[in-house]
């Protein structure tokens, strides 16, 4: 019988890959504020309040991002960042209307978003061949922790954009993985008034209403607000699996003078989905069938989560700026699951099923303190950043196992009542991480040298109790690690910027290696990267390309052990590849993003039978293109806009033993919109848009770590939006 971890999400660690921030608060004075003009997708431009700060806000025009704080924790042009970096801008979000974080990231190079097929419960994804679900997701430049099934759900409508920093990045951010990090940027208050309401209807009886309001609180006070909300009632393509959500995100900014700014960001959401979304795998062939493996009568999952935090900046003088970012976040998930795993011995038309229930709670406090100094030493210009950050996590999990009535293959959608299941185990895990870092960006003429280092201390205590016997097992572990980055960039007068860099990362692994009965060692990685970035003169176009080599050691793997799977640590992975990306938004109404990634991920050391093999579900070739065109005002189709995209995923192996393959596939997306102002100006602000994902409804099998899923089928969503 598969283990619980294999049922829910293969390769998930019973670990908090947490880290980020503490430090003592000093009083301050912040950097001169500047106003960034960001298009809201209509004819009106909004001024978002932006300081040269550390939240990661993206400077962008249309589809082209040109700077953010993601690569250096302070706002830095991408041409000066000696590492591969991409953006998903606010305009892309409006045009593509993604409904999940995975759809948001689907067109970014090197990002593998479909390894687990259709599964609305988790935002699980890989970059450059490495899982970043637990250690690579940040919110406003602060870690967004996760553990087991306690993974924060991210609502794309609440985002201004996403910045993606690829490759090891612990020199500034502490415990992160080999693939890099994804910084989700929350919507912030705007100086200009924004009012938007929207209704949506789509596939699988999807009903959704949402709103977004922002602007000054009154005419006199320097206080600005934003309130974003959403309510959805929806089914999915899987029987017994809902996709309901209520979401509200208040925010306000206080800017008493040009040297001081405080932004408070809040969020609460409640999501109802299911405990499992998988298809039954035939144990004889290993293939995914069309039979839902769960039980519609025992497949509820309710996740409640909330966040509140702030970003404070204050300029001390012409040289120094102090910043402090902090957030408290909580998550509670209560779920039931059932899983059909093998034919019944007496009646093969029936499938024996296991069942379980779990209740998880995750609470995290993150705080990051920074002091920035700008000064010269002779001909050298310095931007020096020093910081101390702290993260405190507490994770509690109750878990119970039982049985579900057999699944009748002649009537697979029939519900089967399940008796109440008692909890069998209780796990409590406390983890704190303290890190201190220093970075210097040294500029001389056209050269920029970036040098940074960081030291982290991590402590993790885990208590596991068997509730039947009241036996308690306690494991304590302490980790400490130095991380660094050095990179050199040269900018030409015509917009070309070649660079070279070396960076490292580490991620502590909570839990016990059941082979050795010892705590897991931290997973460590290092990268060499060389690349070029080209911002075309007199054209809103950015082209980037990179060659990279990443070595990771002490990774965790799932390995079969009897009728379950256990985590073991005895591995080394090597990822080598090439990526190229182009983003443009032109004056003629055309916007385009295109990318190609070649990724060669091999197991250098690992479980028996896998050494020298390719990592499962890691395609060597991926490519994508999305184009959007707003038809001209002087043409017969004025008011219309058209969009279309294609995502190519190359073939990959379905397991680490490389005994069978996933086929290659191309998935197509499309959109069409109409601005009713083209009929009459009295309809200004009214906009209709229809988006289709996986337009031709390809639902092929995709297998990861030996278990097979299916691609999400076609979805079509119509949106009617009104701005005034």
TrEMBL record:
Q: Which UniProt keywords apply?
A: Cell outer membrane, Ion transport, Iron, Iron transport, Membrane, Receptor, Signal, TonB box, Transmembrane, Transmembrane beta strand, Transport
Q: Which GO terms describe its biological process?
A: siderophore transport
Q: Signal sequence span per UniProt?
A: 1-30
Family matches, as Pfam families: Plug (PF07715), TonB_dep_Rec_b-barrel (PF00593)
Q: Where is the TonB-dependent receptor plug domain?
A: 80-180
- Protein name, please? TonB-dependent siderophore receptor
Q: What family is this? A: Belongs to the TonB-dependent receptor family.
Q: How does it sit in the membrane?
A: Multi-pass membrane protein
Q: Name one GO molecular function term.
A: siderophore uptake transmembrane transporter activity
GO cellular component: a single term? cell outer membrane
Segments forming domain TonB-dependent receptor-like beta-barrel? 254-695
